[in-house]
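TICKET #2291
ISSUE: user wants both folds in one file
ATTACHMENT 1:
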Amino acid sequence: MENNPAASKRNVVFYRNTEKAREYKDYLTSEEPLAIVISYYDNSKTLHNFPLSITMRTPGNDEELCRGFLLSEGIIDSNEQIKSISVKTDSENSLLKDQSLRVTLKENCFFQPEKFSRNFYSSSSCGVCGKNSIDQLERQIKTILPEARPQISREKVFSINQIMKKEQRTFHKTGGIHGTAVFNEKLELECIMEDVGRHNAMDKVIGNLMIEDMLPAKNKIVSVSGRAGFELVQKALIAGFGIMTAVGAPSDLAVDLAHTYGMTLIGFLKDDQFNVYSHPQRIVG
């Protein structure tokens, strides 16, 4: 973990009302900006560069984050539309340690930069800032979910948090990072990603599934370590997940979206209880 870019050590002074203050080194979750630049061809086959986004993220799995972000934001429809991704690692700011990814789209991928000319800055807590409208988000959902798949027993649902906690290695060190995990119907863990931004963790998972050619993820379960807001449910639906679980609460808009598009949405998931807010037919037993 000492060389893990997802965490770093800082000096901390610890106070307790019955003890003398003491200083020690504590692990903190790493947070650095990542710029995404789109290189695209116009009708005359001329290559243009467009600065799309700056997102605050935890370093690691940047390519997965980028691919998942482009899909969930409607820039691409599939992994095949990406020609190449190049990385610029030399930083122009020693404090921010800024990095950038340049994504070159294939010649036949139609990109309209004016649709994305909008201060597309994503903080660690919000990846939907700067969107033109909720309708634009909703139109990106194209997968029709099977009504009865995936299915999972209530006993297996109770096990999800324990499996995730065991595998969230950076969280064990820092206590300040979100996790998103993907399971199959047997509750076998297929992928887990961590990031200071919960929307980034989801994008990293989606990007990983894209690389593995496993989208849409109709027969898989996605689980998040925090709450289930509209944006996370929207991203999960774009990826085609039939079941989504969250440790925290869903919002009313997230529940409405899940209900409309056929997703089973579970919230307040604990070791011995959970709430199902939409399409409970996928939970058996």
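ATTACHMENT 2:
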Amino acid sequence: MNSSPGIGFSPYTTYSREEWARLREDTPLTLDEADIENLSGVTERVLTEEVVDVYLPLSRLLNLYVEASQGLYGATEEFLRKGEIKVPFVIGLAGSVAAGKSTSARVLQALLARCPSHPNVALVPTDGFLFRNAELESRDLMTRKGFPESYNLPALLNFLADVKSGKARVEAPVYSHVVYDVLQGQTLAVEHPDIVIVEGLNVLQPAVLPRDGEAIPFVSDFFDFSIYIDAAEDLVERWYVERFLRLRQTAFRDPAAYFHRYATLSEGEARAVALSLWRTINLVNLNENILPTRQRADLILRKGEGHRVESVALRKL
């Protein structure tokens, strides 16, 4: 990663794909072809090569972090003479709409859960912490959905505080991309997790600091490790349009789908709608809120054509 103007160093060490792949060493591939196929997204097909070259070295690194964190926590608890409480290792995963966050999160969840020392790996998308559509409409925020102000931040912070305090069972709200809303009465239960992966657009977003110096938590304060999925703007735009066109032929055909009205559009009309949604909403959010948080991540996966990770930047400071 480039350093800022006037600063002669970077806080990251950047590895080419080939250099990063060698860091896998003897980490075994614990997923078969069927497992890998099931992890694919709407427009992003997960390839075995990608799992082996990128995600196996990353899972090896994360396993080292988890083991070190567990050891430090246990020693601290012994020092403080507290009873042993199981506190999960929390991973934050951020990036733009259509960059492939959800797919990366699923791959990591599957790999990390194969480790005998931490088999219970929960994946929590922060979409569930969006305000419901009725609330967004009352606040005139429907066109700002996904922006920081569209989330119930206190609810998300309280959820993370409960998780990090070792609470045995914590529930998160569930979001449906079909009805485009938080589902009433449905929750995702997180019980006795070893690792929790928190995936979302703005999870690395810092809070506005109060002038009185009183403590105020950021979502990222609860993370033990954070990852940013990065790609050139033109690529993400193309992936967004491709995903919209694919959904137009699949999920949008459901009469209950929020975007059902787009199912009958011609390809040209659908492409125009997708570009408009991308450029007026999602691109604005990316440039104003998401991309500025990239340098807060511990690790940055830089993607190229076909969602292929081309380089990995690991924070050294």
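RESOLUTION: both attachments delivered.
EXTRA DETAIL ON ATTACHMENT 2: The chain has one domain: 12-315.
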